[in-house]
Amino acid sequence: MTTQSRPSGWTNWVALPVLLALWMALAFALDSALLPSPLTVLQTLMEQAASGQLWHHLGVTLYRVAVSFALAMLLGIALGFWMGRSATVNAVLDPVLVLMLNLPALVTIILLYVWMGLVEPAAILAVVINKVPNVAVTIREGARSFDYKLEQMAEVYRFSGRQRLWDLWLPQLFPYVMAATRGGLALIWKIVLVVELLGRSDGVGFQLHMAFQVFDVSAILAYSLAFIAVVQLIELAVLQPLERRAHRWRHPEARHA
Amino acid sequence: MLELTFEGKSYQQSVLGPISLRIHRGDRICLLGPSGVGKTTLLNILAGLDTEIRATTTGPSRELRIGYLFQEPRLLPWRTLYQNLALVGANRERAAHLLGQVGLAGSGHRYPDQLSLGMARRAALARCLAVQPDLLLLDEPFASLDPERASELQGLITRLLDQSPSMAMVCVTHDERDAQALASQSWWLEGSPARLRVAGAGRGAAAEADSRSGLTLLGRRA
């Protein structure tokens, strides 16, 4: 997988600072309220943090992301696994999957709000329905590519159902689960913002809505950047260590000829 | 111990013709034949991997325990050797003992990717032994090994067979010298679709094996 050698540390610190410098220069040149400088945005961020507003709305959004993410992954993995293992199930459910994949997020959200009212379960369900098909498609690919040679081995040595699941299938599925997680987190928080904008009275999406009404670009950028930072933190603190741990066997310290 | 009769096996084209065979406790059989003739297919059928064709077990009615050394080691790459052996029921102590037997003492915490092919194959052999097999199936155990490693492994397998005289073995190979060294009888798979031909070979031919184990072979054709 990773045959390339690791690039040196400085490579991570090029693109973002350049972007920041460009933004600063542009803001300085335009001198408009519609493009506040990074410093103004930082100031807004500090104010919102000090008043407690930022933490409240960030927390609410994070909670919605976590709940809908967990549900979507659980359902999507189960569905994808089932479809990947059984040709019949796949044939039956595939048209539904294609339909759901092509259903615009906005349509699901609006319909659920209309049918269920502007309530929390409608918001969560809308996000889950949007994400499940993506997860299922990725996991189905994984479940289809299981190594039949290892299946035969498990058959001969009479692996129990539990052993098959934990020792045979999940390790093979893991890269696909990680791919679904990566894509999932990014997609889900974007949908959550739309859900909040349309029908909730708290969360980052709601705050963006408020800021939009008064064209408060500084607040829009402050909230967006704050949440991007949170997602980045999850990536660094949870996903990457998890991936490293699960891939230990791929990078054995000492290889023999 | 094991009886098998079937009318043929085909995938896109017919691979195996009608075959009928019996394996008895302690039999040491080498299955010879040109590449692609269907030796591995027959071995898979013996291992119970074929969904259509089932061998019947005779004698004491409990299920036959089978140790299958596949051509590739087929260890779970994301599990250490200890964990791989634990999956077939060997506790730590027994796993360490088995790994010692195949010359891999102290390697229990390694992952299969850290081993050379010869070592991985021996680790897979340890897994075969972990189930205390009644029937040991070996698919080209000496392929892709240099002559020294191959003869080492051959010695190891002979020793292990001598230690458990009631264990039957079927070893797929295309090298008659392997058959001479390991087996008391040779089966040839030939033709297309392939038929089974029994030939006296190895240590003193089938006749001797016959009297020793009361062997009945329906070989040739059904």
Explain what the structure shows:
Chain A: Residues 58-238 form the ABC transmembrane type-1 domain. Chain A: This is NitT/TauT family transport system permease protein. Chain A: It holds the Pfam family BPD_transp_1. Chain A: It is a multi-pass membrane protein. The complex is a heterodimer of chains A (257) and B (222). Chain A has helices at 15-30, 38-51, 53-85, 87-101, 105-116, 120-144, 148-156, 161-199, 204-213, 217-246. Chain A is mostly helical and 257 residues long. Chain A has one domain: Orthogonal Bundle (MetI-like fold), CATH 1.10.3720.10. Chain B is α/β, with parallel strands linked by helices. Chain B has a domain at 2-65 and 133-213: P-loop containing nucleotide triphosphate hydrolases (Rossmann fold, 3-Layer(aba) Sandwich). Chain B has helices spanning 39-46, 81-86, 92-101, 117-130, 147-163, 176-182, 205-213; strands at residues 2-6, 9-10, 14-16, 19-23, 28-32, 56-57, 66-69, 135-139, 168-172, 185-190, 195-199. In chain B, strands 7-8-9-5-10-11 form a six-stranded mixed sheet, sandwiched between helices. Chain B has a three-stranded antiparallel sheet with strand order 4-1-6, with no helix packed on it. In chain B, strand 8 (135-139), helix 5 (147-163) and strand 9 form a beta-alpha-beta unit. The longest helix of chain B has 17 residues, at 147-163. The radius of gyration of chain B is 17 Å and the shape is globular. Chain A binds chain B through residues 149-150, 152-153, 155-157, 159, 163, 167-168, 171, 246, 248-250, 252-257, and chain B through 44, 47-49, 66, 68, 70, 72, 74, 76-79, 83, 87-88, 110-111, 113-116, 119, 127, 131.
Question: Can you lay out the helices and strands and say which pair or pack?
Answer:
The complex is a heterodimer of chains A (257) and B (222).
Chain A: H1 15-30, H2 38-51, H3 53-85, H4 87-101, H5 105-116, H6 120-144, H7 148-156, H8 161-199, H9 204-213, H10 217-246
Helix pairs in contact in A: 2-10, 3-4, 3-6, 3-8, 3-9, 4-6, 5-6, 5-8, 6-8, 8-9, 8-10, 9-10
Chain B: E1 2-6, E2 9-10, E3 14-16, E4 19-23, E5 28-32, H1 39-46, E6 56-57, E7 66-69, H2 81-86, H3 92-101, H4 117-130, E8 135-139, H5 147-163, E9 168-172, H6 176-182, E10 185-190, E11 195-199, H7 205-213
Parallel strand pairs in B: 5-9, 5-10, 7-8, 8-9
Antiparallel strand pairs in B: 1-4, 1-6, 2-3, 10-11
Helix pairs in contact in B: 3-4
